Structure formats: C-alpha cells, structure tokens
C-alpha cells in the first residue's frame, strides 16, 4: 500500500494539473492513495476526483496546506477531508488568499527597483490555472524573462526572508486554523514541522499543546527532515499519541528532488488518520 499525503497541482504552485497529478500518481508512481494539498485552496478537488474515478485503482484524499503563523514563524498546516464550505474556514482562507494578492504588486515593485523588468501580467501568465500567486510563480516569471535559471535560484537570491525581494504576507494563526479544520470535520497535521522557519518554534511541548486544540498528527517523513529529525519527530509523535505521516510534497517540475512517492505514509498511520 503506497500512500502519499502531500502534493501540489497547478491550482497552486505545482506544475501538473490536478488530473495529470492523479494520473502520474497511479501510472508512474504506483500510488494507491494520494492527497491533493494545494496551498490555501480546495479548487483542484473536483478535477482530481474525476481523474481518480476515471483512472481507477487510486483513492484521492481531499486536502489543503494552509499558510499559518506561530510565534511569528511561518508554519504550514495540512488539512484533510473537511467541509470546504464551512463558512468560518472559507472566510479565513479568503483572508490568506487576499494576503497573497496584496503581496504580488509589492514584490513586483521591489523587483522593478532592483532592475528586473517584470509585471503582474507576466506572473499571471505563468500562473494561469492558479487560484492565487505564490513566490514560485514570481520565480517562473523571472525564468521566462531569462533573468534566472530556476525556482531554487530565485529563492536563494531574491525571494526568501532576508533577501531583497522578500515581502511578508498575511497567514492564519496556527491554533485557530487547527480549530477551524476540526470544526469543519477535518483532520489537521503539521507539514514539515522542522523545515527551516518552523523548527525554531515547534517542539514537544508545543505539539502537546496543539494536540489539545485538535491537532491529530505531524508530518515526519519529508525531504526537509534528515534521518535524525525523522527519528526524533517519530518518537515525539509516539509519545504524544499523534499520527506520523510521510509524503513527497510533490510540485511537478517546480521542485527538484521531490518526486511523487518520495516518502510514504504507513497504512496503519493512515487508518488512524481517516478510516
Ligand atoms: P509562498 O506560497 O509564496 O509563500 O511560497 C512558498 C512556496 O515556495 C512553498 O510551496 C515552497 O514549496 C516553495 N519553495 C520554497 N523554497 C523553494 C525553493 N528553494 N525552490 C523551489 N520552491 C521553493
Ligand atoms: Zn508550494
Ligand atoms: Fe509547505
Ligand atoms: Fe507543500
């Protein structure tokens, strides 16, 4: 049983359409279960489900990756199988997407000051199917203009915190996002907790407290975690009764080294999450 619980399509900053992603998951990566978890949006669910029905032999888990903040640090929160129409959650997601929209002109202005001749339209042109813009789309626009070679390079030189074209944006409060997902009938799991920014603020005590707010799991097997991180996080999940998941965080060709099925979720852990 091959289960991958974190992937992105063109509805956010991946490069496969939701349908192509599901087809690749079944036919190339041999997955039995795949979760579509676009940033801050459920817009790909319907197309992905239609593809899963057509391809057969693969179960779609309907998910999201919400941009949140905890103690000032960016934390990504995965949500699974919640009611996408639950009004308080819809409202919060609209606020997050609005923050993305507000950031775009500010980032473009920075880039223009730095001498990069790009416009909002250039970004919209490379993000035609996306619900809102992300830094990877700005990177893609810079690539299309011939300024840089890869998304990696754009983040390393311009778009990461501390770099000259970085602009902050609104993110949901982590605890509130967990509560909203739970209230919408879903399951909340912290994505790559020990990736660069979030590892400064997330530890055993915080996981325990968030468990009280309705957090059910943490993503342990992820390419942002080395072997030592994975062993430590798995031990913490076990100690706290949290579910430990594994996933690729696939972005198509947008993120090198994160192929579908790169990391998998244990079927027993999956059963605790959803069955
Ligand atoms: P944003 O959603 O605008 O905050 O941008 C964050 C997204 O950029 C995340 O989904 C990451 O997967 C992606 N990202 C972050 N760093 C890199 C990188 N070095 N190369 C490619 N994608 C990246
Ligand atoms: Zn992404
Ligand atoms: Fe993430
Ligand atoms: Fe992700």
Topology:
Elements: E1 3-4, H1 18-27, E2 33-36, H2 45-55, E3 59-70, E4 73-80, H3 87-113, H4 120-126, H5 135-144, H6 151-159, E5 172-173, H7 174-183, E6 187-190, H8 204-213, E7 215-221, H9 227-240, E8 243-246, H10 267-274
Bound molecules: adenosine monophosphate, zinc ion and fe (iii) ion (FE) (2 copies).
Label this structure with key terms.
16% strand, alpha/beta, globular, 8-stranded mixed beta sheet, 42% helix, binds adenosine monophosphate, single chain, 275 residues, binds zinc ion, DNA polymerase, domain 1, binds fe (iii) ion
Written overview of the protein:
By secondary structure, the protein is of the alpha/beta class. The protein has helices at residues 18-27, 45-55, 87-113, 120-126, 135-144, 151-159, 174-183, 204-213, 227-240, 267-274, and strands at residues 3-4, 33-36, 59-70, 73-80, 172-173, 187-190, 215-221, 243-246. Strands 1, 2, 3, 4, 5, 6, 7 and 8 form an eight-stranded mixed β-sheet that branches. Strand 2, helix 2 and strand 3 form a beta-alpha-beta unit. The site of one fe (iii) ion has 4 residues, from loops.
